[in-house]
C-alpha cells in the first residue's frame, strides 16, 4: 500500500491527497474536542458514525441540487471529496436559543427564536473563533458581498432541509454550523458546502424529552455521546437496530 501524503490535520479529521487531481480523502478521527481543544478525548466509534451520518446528509443535499464537496464514501472512515478553497468563516444557523447565544444575550436555553438567525465566526483557533459581522468579512476580504449572499442563501436552504429531515425522525434541530469553500470548475467558480454535517456540528434534541443527542453530551460531561450518535444514525436508517455485538463498535448499513 502506497503511503498517502497528508495535506492537513484538524481536530476531528485528516485530509490526504486524493487519487486524482482536484480530489482529497477526508478521514474521520475518533477525537472529541471542546472549548478550543482545551478538552480532548478519543471516543471509539465516533468517527465511523460521523462519516456515515455526514455521507447520508451530503448525498441528500447533492440530490436536492445544493452543491457540496462530497463525491462518495470510500470506507467506514473515509470520503472522497473535491478540493475547495475553504472560506475562513463558520456559518451558524440558530433556530432555538442554546450555547453561546444564551450567554451573550441572556436568553434562556430552549427558547424558540422568532426566526432563524444566521451568525458568522472567524475561523482562528488562537483567537477562539470570534463572532464577526458581514462588515468584517467583506472589509478583510474573507468573502465578497456576493459570496456572502450565496453563503446565507445556502445556509437557509440547508436549514429548511435539515429541520424537516430531523423533525421527521423525532429530533429538533436547535442549531448547526457549516463551512463553505470556493470550487473552481473551468472558468467558473461557485460556493459549495464543505467539511461535514453530523452531531459534532449540530445541536439535536429529542422532540419529546429534549434529551441532547449531540456533542454537548461531551462538552457538558453528560456521558453517552456515542450512544446518542448511534440513536441519531438509527433514526435516520443508517444504523442496524439490535444488531451490535458487545464490544464490536457500531454496526452500520452497507
UniProtKB/TrEMBL annotation:
UniProt keyword ATP-binding present: yes
Alphabetized UniProt keyword annotations: ATP-binding, Ligase, Nucleotide-binding, Purine biosynthesis
GO biological process terms, semicolon-separated: 'de novo' IMP biosynthetic process; cobalamin biosynthetic process
Tagged with keyword Ligase: yes
A GO molecular-function annotation: phosphoribosylaminoimidazolesuccinocarboxamide synthase activity
Protein EC: 6.3.2.6
Record SUPFAM superfamilies: SAICAR synthase-like
Catalytic activity: 5-amino-1-(5-phospho-D-ribosyl)imidazole-4-carboxylate + L-aspartate + ATP = (2S)-2-[5-amino-1-(5-phospho-beta-D-ribosyl)imidazole-4-carboxamido]succinate + ADP + phosphate + 2 H(+)
Domain SAICAR synthetase/ADE2 N-terminal: 7-235
The organism's place on the tree of life at top rank: Bacteria
Biological or metabolic pathway of the protein: Purine metabolism; IMP biosynthesis via de novo pathway; 5-amino-1-(5-phospho-D-ribosyl)imidazole-4-carboxamide from 5-amino-1-(5-phospho-D-ribosyl)imidazole-4-carboxylate: step 1/2
PANTHER family, alphabetized: MULTIFUNCTIONAL PROTEIN ADE2 (PTHR43599), SI:DKEY-6E2.2 (PTHR43599:SF3)
Name of the protein described by the UniProt record: Phosphoribosylaminoimidazole-succinocarboxamide synthase
Source organism of this protein record: Pseudovibrio exalbescens
